[in-house]
Fold:
Amino acid sequence: MPVHMIHLLVAKKVNPNASLAFYIGNLAPDANRDGDTRSDKKIKSHFYDAPDRDDVLRKFALNANNDYLKGYLLHLFADIQFHVFWKKNTTFPPYQFGEESWTKFMEENKKIDSYAYHNTEWAYSLYKEMEIWDYDGFIETLSISKDDVKWMIPYRHERIIANKLDSSTVFSPALVEKFVDETAEEFNKWFPNLKS
Structure:
């Protein structure tokens, strides 16, 4: 699963002039206060527990009738693309291979997030705008509440500001850019075709 800055880079590529609702929706599935990225709440917010996740995403897409829901959908789409892209483009063991590989995966993710944030011109201002958004268009779900998202945005922003790290050697800035470009292009093909 990509880090927040990768999600935001993809969202900016999909729609550079999107509303704040789109960008907030794009991060909302990760609004998880317990900090465990493998918790039941995260499993539900990402539909990992669905018997046919692709079908659930197609149905979700057909009902994504506002910017917040479209952003949420893009997050889920990018997560799927990331798993495939990671396996195809790195020799680094996937995080599913146990605690040691999970720890290394999360270390690389922190580097990716930090480097992208500190080297992206609009990152600070977008986070600041998201921190004061009025939550117009927000749709609460069983697993994601408005309070969860309001908590997550400044919390994650503070952490990313404080951790200025070098880029990942496993998932380099060039590889991040390739993922962002390919994912945005695939989403822009997939989403409109569902509606026709």
